Every structure is written in structure tokens, then in C-alpha cells.
């Protein structure tokens, strides 16, 4: 076993790659940071912020940008229009309610496609669609989708709360779409983040068998920390489009994070996404800055600690071969590896850091320096900066010089 392209995942993954890794399988990122990301309570993206994020998403190479909710506000519509006028490579879509007025507004803004959000589970239908019957639901869904189609829009139908829908009705709906040919893609939506990966897999396969020609997208929330796993389950079961957000921003606990799904596809499934991976960390920082939502230091892929090592036994391995503690090289995602000195350090780290900082200290002083590093880290309740470590080493060196 050895690394390939700077990556070294579990060899057992090979057994589960199935068709996800096939070179001719199309798996595209339809990022919704500008729509669901902004639904994170407290987040406001103004037009400049939306334009910056849209440009950055386009630069990494996402297939589609869900740029906002058309009914939300005039500011949003202005921003969506401005994004359309940037003529990015990425397709621009917007969320519409099940109303022709929303579709009209979307068409006038110049978007490529609409996402028709139409609640499907019994609880949503009862409270949001006046307990609409199955027959009326289907006829409205067909009317709305053909209306959007006739306005020249790509049509992505979003049965809101798909994971709590009744399966016979869901099967009937997608069968109708397949017959009518009014829908380009169906988004499977885990609105409350309540599904297991196995359930997502089941739902995706059921829809595929009821409507084999319908393209599928998967959109998962993170209420149980399963959004990325559920998204991958959807992809493995046949969804070719991923609806996710940078930093996992989004309603409540957020969505599957775009960068996590991309790296899982690339590293764990061995499936190239065509995304410029080196720009992921910078994009995460931009979204964090513009949303005002900090990225947790231990966030997968883009967190500051994702490639930092402090524990002595870990560092001893990393310095011989980083793959003892990492599944892929940090530079792939625009990060760097760092060795920190602190309470959990060992002598190997002391020697490494002295050398890295160009500091001279007799080897017999290393254990004393390590003791002082640990004491200082306990006192400060954190790892030490390079300057603090250098101060400790310099002080110890001068004490040793005086006592000789
Ligand atoms: C969870 C999701 O991701 S879905 C997307 C959610 N996104 C947003 O809500 C975006 C921001 N929203 C807004 O700015 C506002 O809610 C607006 C402008 C869209 C609508 O505002 P208002 O007209 O004042 O309606 P309000 O938001 O108070 O209520 C929504 C109404 O739409 C109905 N509704 C909800 N979903 C849908 C739908 N997909 N299609 C049609 N009607 C719907 C609700 O039942 C409710 O109707 P009611 O007043 O008869 O109870
Ligand atoms: O497409 C929709 O219906 C909205 C999707 C959504 O963000 C959700 O329900 O989680």
C-alpha cells in the first residue's frame, strides 16, 4: 500500500466504490450557500457579498449556484440579477414557491433554472398547502413544472420534506413527472435532517426505479451530524447532483458541507469532481468572513486544526511519514501542516521545533525544555506559539550558559 496522488484512504473503501468512481459518471455540485446558507439564522449576505461568493464558487468550478429565494426581497432579486449578468460558467438557479408568480419573477431575472419547492409530507401539506389532496398535488405539480418549462427554464422539482413523504405517493409523483417530461431533475430533500444513510439510499433507489430517466439531486441537513454521510448515501444510490453549502452553513445545524462532500468523493470514493480543490480553504474563509459565522477549528477539510499535530506520539509518526496521521496532503485543499508544541508534546517535537526555528540547545537540555513547555501550556491552557517556545528555549540556553 502506498499513497496515490497525495491521498491514502482506507483500502476497504475499494469494496464500496461501485459506480461512484466510474470516470463517465456525472456527479455535479449544485451549491446552495447563497440560498440555504443565508437561511442560517442571523446571516445576511448583501449584494456585494453574494457577488463575491458567486464568483468564488464559479472559480472553484461548481456546476450550479442556487443564488437565492426569488420571493424573499427586492435586494435578493437585484443580487440574483447581478449574478446572472456576470455570465459565470456556473448555471444560476433560484428557489421558487409553488406559485406561478415566483416562476415569472425568476424568468424575468434571467436565471437558468428554478427549484420548485412544494411540500410533500403529510405534516407539511397539512400546514403549508391547506391539506392538499394527492390528486390536486399532482395536478398542481404538473401545471407548475410545465409552466416553468414553457418559460424556458430548467426545472428542478423539490418535494420539501421528501424523507417524511409517503412512499406510494412519492412513487406516483415521480412516475407522473417521467410520463409528462416536465421536470429536468428531482431534489430529494431531508428537510429536518431526520433520515438515516440507509433510508436515503432506499428512497433514492425507489425513485430511480419508479422514474429511471429522472436526474436526482440530494440535499441533506445536519441535525444529527449525518448530512455528509447522507449525501454520499444518496450519491452512491444514484443521485448525480449534490446540493450543499460551503462551511455547512444553512437552516438550524446547516447542510452537508460542499468541501466535505467534494473531498469525500475525491479521496474516499476516488471520484474526480473537477473542482479546484486548492481553493477550498480560501473559499471557506471568504464565506466565514461574509456570513459572520466562524469555522470551528476542528472542522473537516478547512478547519485550522485539520492538519495541525500536537500529541507527541502522533508527531513522532508524522515527521517520519505524514500518512501515519493524515488521509491526504494538506496542500491539496490549500492548507499547510503544522507541528504545535504544548501539553501533549514529546522530545521529538522539541527537537523538531528547535530545528525549524533555527535555535541551538544542547540535547541534554531537551527534557528540561519539554517540562517547561508542558508547564507553560498548562498555565496558558493552550498550545504555545512559536515565539513563546523560542522564549523558553532562549531562557534555558542562557541559564545553562550562566551555570557553566
Ligand atoms: C426550509 C427551506 O429551505 S424552504 C425555503 C424557505 N425560505 C424562505 O422562507 C425564504 C425567505 N422567506 C421570505 O422572505 C418570506 O417568507 C416570503 C417573502 C417568501 C413570504 O412571505 P409571506 O408572504 O409574508 O408569507 P409567510 O412567510 O409569512 O408564510 C408563508 C406562506 O406560504 C405558504 N407556503 C409555504 N411553503 C410554500 C410553498 N412551497 N409553496 C407555496 N406556498 C407555501 C405557507 O403555508 C404560508 O401560508 P399561510 O400564510 O397561508 O400560512
Ligand atoms: O427545495 C426545497 O424545498 C427547500 C429545501 C430545503 O432547503 C430544505 O427543505 O431543507
Short description:
This protein has 404 residues and is an alpha/beta fold. The site of acetyl coenzyme *A (ACO) has 14 residues, from loops.
Helix/strand-derived category reads alpha/beta
Q: Which value, in Å, is the CA radius of gyration?
A: 25 Å
Shape: elongated
Q: Largest sheet, if any?
A: 8 strands, parallel, barrel
Give the number of DSSP strands.
10
Number of helices: 14
What is the average per-residue confidence, as pLDDT, rounded to a whole number? Answer: 97
The amount of helix comes to 40-55%
Question: In order across it, which strands form the biggest sheet?
Answer: 1-2-3-4-5-6-7-8
Q: Which residue ranges are poorly predicted, with pLDDT under 50 across at least 5 consecutive positions? A: none
The distinct ligands, each listed once, are: acetyl coenzyme *A, 2-oxoglutaric acid
Report the end-to-end length measured between terminal Cα atoms.
51 Å
Descriptive overview:
The chain is of the alpha/beta class and 404 residues long. Helix content is 43%, strand content 11%. The chain has 14 helices and ten strands. The strands form two sheets. It has an eight-stranded parallel barrel, surrounded by seven helices. Helix 6 links the parallel strand 5 and strand 6. Helix 8 packs across helix 9 (258-268). The protein is elongated, with a radius of gyration of 25 Å. The model has no long low-confidence stretch (mean pLDDT 97). It binds acetyl coenzyme *A and 2-oxoglutaric acid.
Amino acid at each position: 500500500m502506498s499513497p496515490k496522488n497525495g491521498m491514502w484512504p482506507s483500502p476497504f473503501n475499494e469494496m464500496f466504490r461501485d459506480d461512484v468512481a466510474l470516470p463517465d459518471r456525472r456527479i455535479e455540485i449544485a451549491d446552495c450557500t447563497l440560498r440555504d446558507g443565508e437561511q442560517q439564522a442571523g446571516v445576511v449576505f448583501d449584494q456585494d457579498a453574494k457577488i463575491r461568493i458567486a464568483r468564488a464558487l464559479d472559480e472553484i468550478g461548481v456546476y450550479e449556484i442556487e443564488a437565492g429565494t426569488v420571493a424573499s426581497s427586492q435586494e435578493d432579486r437585484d443580487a440574483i440579477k447581478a449574478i446572472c449578468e456576470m455570465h459565470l460558467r456556473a448555471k444560476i438557479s433560484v428557489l421558487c414557491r409553488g406559485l406561478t408568480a415566483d416562476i415569472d419573477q425568476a424568468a424575468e431575472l434571467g436565471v437558468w433554472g428554478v427549484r420548485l419547492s412544494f411540500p410533500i409530507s403529510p405534516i407539511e401539506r397539512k400546514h403549508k398547502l391547506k391539506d392538499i389532496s394527492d390528486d390536486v398535488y399532482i395536478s398542481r405539480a404538473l401545471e407548475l413544472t410545465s409552466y416553468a418549462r414553457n418559460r424556458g427554464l430548467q426545472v428542478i422539482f423539490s418535494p420539501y420534506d421528501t424523507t417524511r413523504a409517503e412512499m406510494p405517493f412519492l412513487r406516483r409523483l415521480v412516475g407522473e413527472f417521467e410520463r409528462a417530461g416536465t421536470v429536468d431533475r428531482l431534489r430529494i430533500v431531508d428537510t429536518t435532517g431526520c433520515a438515516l444513510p440507509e433510508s436515503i439510499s432506499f428512497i433514492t433507489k425507489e425513485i430511480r426505479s419508479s422514474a429511471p430517466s429522472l436526474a436526482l439531486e440530494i440535499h441533506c441537513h445536519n441535525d444529527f451530524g449525518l448530512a455528509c454521510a447522507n449525501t454520499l448515501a444518496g450519491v452512491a444510490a444514484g443521485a448525480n447532483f449534490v446540493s450543499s453549502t460551503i462551511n455547512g452553513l444553512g437552516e438550524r445545524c446547516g447542510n452537508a458541507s460542499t468541501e466535505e462532500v467534494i473531498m469525500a468523493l475525491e479521496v474516499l470514493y476516488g471520484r474526480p469532481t473537477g473542482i479546484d480543490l486548492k481553493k477550498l480553504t480560501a473559499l471557506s474563509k471568504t464565506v466565514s468572513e461574509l456570513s459572520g459565522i466562524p469555522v470551528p477549528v476542528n472542522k473537516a477539510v478547512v478547519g485550522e486544526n485539520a492538519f495541525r499535530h500536537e500529541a507527541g506520539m502522533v508527531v513522532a509518526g508524522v515527521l517520519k511519514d505524514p500518512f501515519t496521521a493524515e488521509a491526504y496532503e494538506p496542500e491539496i485543499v490549500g492548507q499547510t501542516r503544522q507541528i504545535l508544541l504544548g501539553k501533549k508534546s514529546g522530545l521529538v517535537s522539541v527537537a523538531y521545533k528547535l530545528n525549524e526555528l533555527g535555535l541551538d540547545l544542547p540535547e541534554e537540555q531537551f527534557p528540561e525544555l519539554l517540562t517547561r513547555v508542558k508547564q507553560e501550556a498548562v498555565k496558558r491552557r493552550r498550545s504555545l506559539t512559536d515565539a513563546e517556545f523560542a522564549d523558553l528555549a532562549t531562557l534555558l540556553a542562557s541559564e545553562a550558559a550562566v551555570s557553566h
